[in-house]
User: Which sequence fits this backbone?
DNA sequence: CCCCTATCTTGACAATGTCAAGATAACTTC
DNA sequence: GAAGTTATCTTGACATTGTCAAGATAGGGG
């Protein structure tokens, strides 16, 4: 038994994996994307990672624990998408806010199941610290982008709560309805035309 | 064996139930309300109806079949809530549209799990005829309410698709974010104040 | 009155999440 | 460097769930 397992290349060592946690997150994301929130299976994730069915328990307490970590990671990438849109947009406050809304929709279209996990599932533990931090970072970004509309210096005066909520609702509504394929007039369009229509609606409602 | 079962009062006959379909729908709604979409169990529904675990299969093909019927029933009551709000609102087109939006939110708050089943779940078969009919009735109502804003005679000229989508997005965004308890500034308020804030946001975005 | 069919029950099976116990490897401490 | 300790992973088990197949029961039409 000098070589306990000749081993496939990807598995680092025979027994101990090395970075199983990261592999499980990637496998979990793939499972989520392919099966959706409601078809998500922890044993399915373990199979993708080529690991035994009980292995995930040591890195995430249970299935909801893995989903909580995935949701937190989702919120971080969610903010990234918004920033990416804003970097190629005009610098005025309204254009920046519209761009953030476009990033909101972009994210929903790019990761439909993850979006549902983050916003329409109670499987993640929304009280968990990692998730709270990631989600509230996204919320703070929203508040700041709205504050800029009033010309406030960043972090100075808080915008009206109703303006924040109204802005959020419009972006979230568009994203969620796109995600469930309910905005029929937009479904046939190519990305450029769809983006133009979405941006127009955002600008109209936020201006 | 003259009396095969003395029988509790609610069960109509000893073996054949009588109106099990209706009882299952009610039990399914209770299960949904208490366990949520993701905790919904078909065997749990059967227990509530005091019936064997395989009984539902004869009235609904499978668990998703029952959920499909519940979603369709949900859309019918969804329209009712909107109409109820509109009856106690001013008659001008904008007030009527705002009232429909308030009914949208009312429904989400009154039936959180059902709302998620209808808008954020792929367990219902959204191609099923009963569900399509109920959902598109709600959509037609939206289109008509938006059309009235332009002063068009009912059913005459179609409103702009972007106006329809924008209106829908605002109402849906508010309802969905309320449903997931994300609009913090509104959570502490009493219903009267919350309604006032919601109506103000709707009116501002739709006017 | 008898058969037929819809309705409901019972029993079985595979899949799933979770727990407990054991195996293996890495790390610590001397 | 060796032994003990801990973290990591596997194996096996159990209850729960959705679904299917076969049998029991009853209501309705000939």
Assistant:
């Amino acid at each position: 038994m000098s070589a306990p397992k000749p081993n496939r290349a990807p598995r680092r060592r025979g027994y101990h994996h090395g970075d199983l946690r990261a592999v499980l997150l990637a496998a979990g994301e793939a499972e989520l994307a392919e099966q959706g929130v409601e078809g998500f299976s922890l044993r399915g994730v373990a199979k993708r990672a080529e690991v035994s069915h009980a292995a995930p328990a040591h890195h995430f307490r249970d299935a909801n624990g893995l989903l909580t970590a995935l949701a937190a990671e989702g919120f971080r990438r969610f903010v990234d998408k918004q920033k990416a849109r804003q970097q190629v947009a005009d610098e005025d406050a309204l254009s920046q806010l519209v761009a953030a809304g476009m990033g909101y929709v972009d994210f929903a279209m790019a990761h439909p199941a993850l979006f549902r996990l983050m916003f329409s599932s109670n499987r993640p533990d929304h009280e968990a610290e990692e998730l709270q931090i990631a989600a509230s970072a996204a919320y703070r970004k929203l508040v700041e982008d709205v504050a800029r509309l009033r010309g406030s210096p960043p972090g100075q005066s808080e915008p009206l709560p109703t303006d924040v909520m109204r802005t959020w609702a419009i972006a979230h509504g568009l994203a969620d309805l796109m995600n469930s394929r309910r905005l029929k007039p937009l479904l046939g369009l190519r990305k450029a035309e769809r983006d133009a229509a979405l941006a127009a609606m955002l600008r109209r409602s936020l201006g």
Observations:
- The radius of gyration of chain A is 20 Å.
- Confidence is low (pLDDT under 50) at residues 1-12 of chain A.
